[in-house]
Write a structure and sequence with these properties.
Structural class: mainly alpha
Radius of gyration: 30 Å
Distance between the termini: 57 Å
Strand content: under 5%
Order of helices and strands: HHHHHHHHHHHH
Shape: elongated
Helix content: over 70%
Number of helices: 12
Length: 294
């Protein structure tokens, strides 16, 4: 345009030189599709800002270009980690949208699954038992029936006394509260059924509700069997996932460390506990973006 050259003219020339060096052709001038030749988004940004046609919009200095290229490896790693984090957040959001869209279709299937699991739990120990044992199993089956019936009543808007617009979460949470209040405190049903509800919440990606059910199951196992029983340790390990999903990473780390100490103190720790602990540790490392340890 016949204007005098200045520092911003030199910045433009520097941008051209950087492009030519990185594209591998020092005779090639940047065309409208020049970005296809540059793999790094960071480098492409400094070239783009350098090649801006209007001087007043050419808001980059040679010092900034030099500093960016000097620290390119570090900046590229930061950009990669940020992109991984954004991709993970996008995937989590998409997953939540899919579950929200499909949630109504799960109501019947979840209730049938819960009923079948509770019924199998009641029937597993019935063969060749004395009359007293049979009566105890019948009592457990009856309590489980009431437990499932409460869920069905809550989830079915047509049932007498049922709340309007009931959701799966509402039904399961109400049933969990009924479980806490109606079963005998020493009944093994309490932690088992609470763990089952936690599994269903996990499947439906109800994160806060899953944490509530897992916590109740763990506390019941701990009270009934003691803190170092295998079932207690297993239920405590299963707390790590919902703690991570609820962004309580410090709590998840502390719970996992306590579980690992309990497992190391066992004479012959079961392989299932070792696997669950390692899997929880892997999930924790991944969420903390510690890929080398993962």
């Amino acid at each position: 345009n016949g204007e005098l050259a200045d520092v911003k003219s030199d910045v433009y020339s520097l941008g051209v030189i950087v492009y030519q060096i990185l594209s591998g052709d020092i005779r090639k001038y940047p065309d409208p599709h020049w970005e296809n030749d540059i793999k790094s988004g960071i480098v492409a940004d400094i070239i783009r800002r350098s090649l801006t046609g209007e001087r007043r919009r050419r808001n980059i200095s040679s010092h900034e270009i030099s500093k960016t290229l000097t620290n390119l490896d570090h900046l590229t790693e930061i950009e990669r980690l940020d992109e991984l984090k954004r991709a993970r957040l996008r995937e989590e959001e998409e997953q939540r949208k899919r579950w929200r869209a499909r949630r109504p279709a799960f109501v019947a299937a979840v209730l049938v699954l819960l009923f079948a699991s509770a019924f199998s739990l009641m029937q597993a120990r019935s063969a060749q038992q004395a009359q007293l044992r049979a009566e105890a199993e019948a009592a457990r089956a009856n309590s489980a029936r009431k437990f499932v019936q409460d869920i069905i009543t809550t989830a079915d808007p047509s049932a007498p006394g049922a709340p309007q617009d009931a959701t799966v979460s509402t039904a399961l949470m109400r049933a969990l509260e009924a479980l806490k209040n109606s079963h005998s405190e020493d009944s093994p049903d309490r932690p088992e059924l609470a763990a089952l509800v936690g599994d269903i919440f996990s499947t439906l990606d109800f994160r806060g509700e899953e944490l509530n059910a897992r916590q109740f199951s763990f506390e019941e196992y701990k009270r009934q069997l003691g803190p170092t029983a295998h079932l207690t340790i297993r239920s405590q390990i299963l707390l790590v996932r919902p703690l991570i999903n609820n962004r309580r990473l410090d709590d998840a780390r502390a719970v996992l460390l306590e579980c690992e100490e309990k497992i190391s103190a066992l004479t012959n720790p079961p392989a299932t506990l070792l696997f669950l602990a390692e899997h929880a540790r892997l999930r924790l490392h991944l969420h903390m973006l510690d890929f080398s340890k993962a």
